[in-house]
Amino acid sequence: MNKYLLLSLLLFLLGVCSCENPHIAKLKKEVEQTNAYCPINGGISGDLLSVTYNQDLNDVKFYWSLNEEYGSLMLLKQNKEYIYSNMKLMLKNSESNAILKDLVAAKASLTLIYKTSSSGKTVTFNLSNEELEKIYNSPTITEKEIAQLRIANSVAIQNEACPQKIDEGMYIEKTEIVDDYLVYYCSMDESIYSINQMKSSISEMYRGVREYLKSTISDPSMKKDIENLITLKMGFQYRYYGKTTKNFIDVKITPEELKTYTR
């Protein structure tokens, strides 16, 4: 073969091999841009530590820290649907839709790695390109549906951490949605607290709950919970009850009042 023809053929093959799939190139750029903002504060639930692209596997990895006070590896291991719904919420919003589009176009997969800060243990989830494409092609989620999913996820995480100590002899035992309120059930040691006395000072208790909520509004997760409750026209309710007598007192923050907290 003519040496000049052979050289031309080699140069052509090298050029073909070096041509990167434009969808992959775009995905890598999106990954680099997102990673530049890391770590991203996710509030009480944890932080997004980094985002990387593995060219050999054509896979994007999201590394998350996990605040064990509000969620455990066991919760994640036992509930992939929880992970799937969270990813759907994250990837379908306007800010993340570009990277989802690029993942699908590049035929890439997504790996989610959650790591606990205390033990360093991790749990890994994989979403195939078919699953990502299903998320991408799913109907646009309404603002109300997004809020409902987020509140349901928040309740699941908080219940996993229960009982949560509030103070000496006082614990949050359970969280649930009841009618138009997100309800926290708080048990109390009646050798320390008097339900009747608390009933006589209901205004002070209301003031304490209101100040607590206002003090936590700077946390991204808490702020998002409040915004979601406002979208759903829901409020907060704290039910304090005696562990022995089951006598209780309710402190409610109405949906109307909740709106004032984000202004």
3D structure, described in words:
The chain is an alpha+beta fold and 263 residues long. 47% of the residues lie in helices and 25% in strands. It has 11 helices and 10 strands. It has helices spanning 3-18, 22-36, 73-78, 80-92, 97-105, 129-137, 143-160, 195-200, 202-216, 220-231, 255-259, and strands at 40-41, 47-54, 59-66, 109-116, 122-127, 164-167, 170-178, 181-188, 235-242, 248-253. The protein is elongated and about 70 Å long.
Percentage of residues assigned to helices: 40-55%
Radius of gyration: 25 Å
Which parts are unreliable, with pLDDT below 50 for 5 consecutive residues or more? 9-18
Strand order of the largest sheet: 1-2-3-4-5
How many beta strands in the DSSP annotation?
10
Q: Whole-number average pLDDT?
A: 82
What is the rounded distance between the termini? 77 Å
Class based on secondary structure composition and strand pairing: alpha+beta
Give a short account of the largest sheet.
5 strands, mixed
Number of separate helices: 11
Strand content: 25-35%
Identify the overall geometry.
elongated
Order of helices and strands: HHEEEHHHEEHHEEEHHHEEH
